[in-house]
Specification:
With 143 residues, the protein is α/β, with parallel strands linked by helices. 29% of the residues lie in helices and 17% in strands. β3 (74-78) and β4 (85-89) form a beta hairpin.
């Protein structure tokens, strides 16, 4: 039996639609990262981007488990100036920028290489139920 390795031009891509309303953030991000990497496909090849595109809607309604997690988990920025560190708790970040929270959760599950950056470009995230990707005719992906 011969193992086939996918090549860059041979990969056929599909699009998937994920409704994140009422879904736990980490579970949804893990499933989306798996699809972006292509690990759900039989022709998965580690050094080739074999993943599919993913459209995530209703990100503003994602759930966070744990009683203290919304206050303990923080997002940090640093401007490289003295006193320039900004610390924002998860609760405030979810209220202001839920797309950023979801994208960061998925980005941290992808490879930290140029290949991971290419995978992340196939992720489209929207706060509400409307999205402009009907032309790709995405299949519904259950989480």
């Amino acid at each position: 039996m011969k193992t086939t390795m996918a090549k860059k031009g041979q990969v056929s891509r599909k699009w998937h639609l994920v409704d994140a309303s009422g879904v736990v953030l980490g579970r949804a991000a893990a499933k989306v990262a798996t699809v972006l990497m292509g690990k759900h496909r039989p022709d998965y090849t580690p050094h080739v981007d074999t993943g599919d595109g993913v459209v995530v809607i209703n990100v503003a309604e994602v759930k966070i488990t744990g009683r203290a997690k919304p206050l303990q988990r923080v997002y940090r920025r640093y401007s490289r100036h003295p006193g320039g560190q900004k610390v924002i708790p998860l609760r405030e970040m979810l209220a202001a920028r839920p797309e950023f929270v979801f994208r960061e959760a998925v980005r941290r599950m992808l490879p930290k290489t140029k290949l991971g950056s290419a995978m992340l470009k196939k992720l489209k995230i929207y706060r509400g139920a409307e999205h402009p990707h009907q032309a790709q005719s995405p299949d519904k992906l259950e989480i």
